[in-house]
Amino acid sequence: MSKLHPVVERITQRIIDKSKDSRKTYLDLMEREGEKHQDRNVMPCSNLAHGFAAAGEDKESIATKRGPNIGIISAYNDTISAHQPYGAYPPQMKLYAREIGATAQVAGATPAMCDGVTQGQDGMELSLFSRDVIALATAVGLSHAMYDSVALLGICDKIVPGLLIGALRFGHLPSVFIPSGPMPSGIANKEKQRVRQLYAEGKATRAELLESESKSYHSPGTCTFYGTANSNQMMMELMGLHMPGAAFVPPDTQLRKALTRSAVHQLAAITRESDDYRPLAKCVDEKAIVNAVVGLMATGGSTNHAIHIPAMARAAGITIDWTDISELSSVTPMLCRVYPNGSGDVNHFHAAGGIGYVIGELLDAGLAHEDIITVGGASLRDYAKEPIYDGSELIWRDTGPSGDEEMLRPVAQPFQSDGGMRLVEGNLGRACFKTSAVEKERWTVEAPCRIFKTQEDVSKAFAAGELNRDVIVVMRFQGPRANGMPELHKLTPPLGVLQDRGYKVALVTDGRMSGASGKVPAAIHCTPEALGGGPLSLLRDGDIVRISGEDGTLSTTADLSTREPAEAPEPEQGMGRELFGMFRSNADGAEQGGSAMLAMGGM
Question: Where is each Dihydroxy-acid/6-phosphogluconate dehydratase N-terminal domain found (predicted)?
């Protein structure tokens, strides 16, 4: 085992120290829950009979506890391409379970919304809080107390964090995430970006734009750019919550089926009654959370995880903040250039050595914790491999050197020396700046600001030529409490056009930009948010704002001390947004995870 990097060691210990009391409280609860629910046969007969009434040939096994019973929580729907393959999974998994004397039941389903579908639409305001709903739905499914372990079927943006948060409240049970893999590569990402900008300038028709987008998102499987969905898959590998190497194997292949079969068999082998008990509560510890952060930085992953990681950690009694994340980023070299940070997508990344190569490099450099409890190996070292299926046997082999150093490099020759996600702070609050997708000469922008409340207003100002100058666009009242903290990708094409015209342009917002954050410098997730008097609410058009990823600055030269906060817009209704008023009213800040559920639950 390589010697741990001193900064990684120091920050891990800092997280352990500040989480000491909350982590103990959580683990004590999980121990009590495990003892209380370890034998479903203590349930009253009527309750138990209800639980297996529809189990068909598995009834007797479940009734007599002949073998482990695996609960399946599925985020299947056939609107989201990444989740469409999951429709076929439960029948297959039941067969795989019977092979080893186990059983499997669908314990419940969760919603699974796609930010790509809702982008720029009213439904996007439900997106972040869908994570809380998914966690709650997971808890409802597992509350039947019929299960010895849990299979989690989910991939995309809020879905994996929501599933993990919910499953962690049942952390006495072993849990494995089972992905379905990315769709085949479509048109070149640069071509997709080119058509989007042409459309923003009025130089391409809607039909031409739709044709381009349809060639990008074209079949079952996860979208192939390295956004939040694929960053989720990376993190599950770094935390040891997949079977090794499962993240980016395509759907409907023999290898994918072999990995799913292996996951089911493993779920039967690591239950409380086995000799190899691996409860989720013990797998997701401080070291695993640090590994997730390091993996995110090494791969240039989604900025959404600056919100999701604190929330997931909090559900396990662990406290981590943006200072911890920024300091880990400062010592983690960037090993990957995957679109939107590079030209190739996750399929090219996987073919070049993929996540197994990254994990091996990080372990050898002492940047990741090897000694974590994983669901599918003796340690994280078993994840520094790639799976192979020869038609009869699933094996794991060393990845070897990078197959494409334009996309994937060793620690000794990184693309840049740090992870590219930096904390910026000052008299406008604290925010995240993803430098990895931005050219270094654009890391610092100082210019007069123009303030907006909606993406549509930005588009109108752009079309009218009002932004043809050096400008920092401020989008405020976009935080969790204001409107659910939507992603603001409609801003990317017009701001990209302005930047290409030679202007110094940046974005400052208390909203999100996510894993598709592009080439325009942006301070996102600003906290405190504007609603409630945060600093962004005190800005006025024309104030000079400075954002710098180099020195970590987010500030204005304006005197904010004598100003009153700008009036916030009334919450919008329609598309179910009024149903989420409770979530908005009770949400905590972005740095704490932007969750109403965790805040209200006292976690």
Answer: 68-382
